[in-house]
Amino acid sequence: QVQLVESGGGSVQPGGSLTLSCSVSGFTHRSYCVAWFRQVDEKEREGVAGLFSFFASTIYADSVKGRFTISQNDADDRVFLQMNSLKPEDGAMYYCAAKTDTCTWSISDYDYWGQGTRVTVSS
Known about the structure:
By secondary structure, the chain is an all-beta fold. Helix content is 0%, strand content 51%. A hairpin with a 4-residue loop joins strand 7 and strand 8 (78-83). It is globular, with a radius of gyration of 13 Å. The termini are far apart. The mean pLDDT is 94.
């Protein structure tokens, strides 16, 4: 009954910005992680950012640190990924995922996934 739904993807030019949104429902644990992963075609899905709800602590992949910001809006159970200074290599299908307790970088640790939203960065 847990459901994650991403939105906000689109096509932007290099240097542009996008904000992705993940709506989370049916996940009532007080201690959990919501993370963003991305995948290009058939390549391995890689972690981008994660937010640990209990302390609102965050983790970021080195490739996006300083450019991306993950945040949470408790009022409507949404987790956002603000992406600035986008590069062509940021283009991918972006997924949000959830697990109990702290964030990790391993996709196998996450039990719940959204359907994905596509981000294209090109001139």
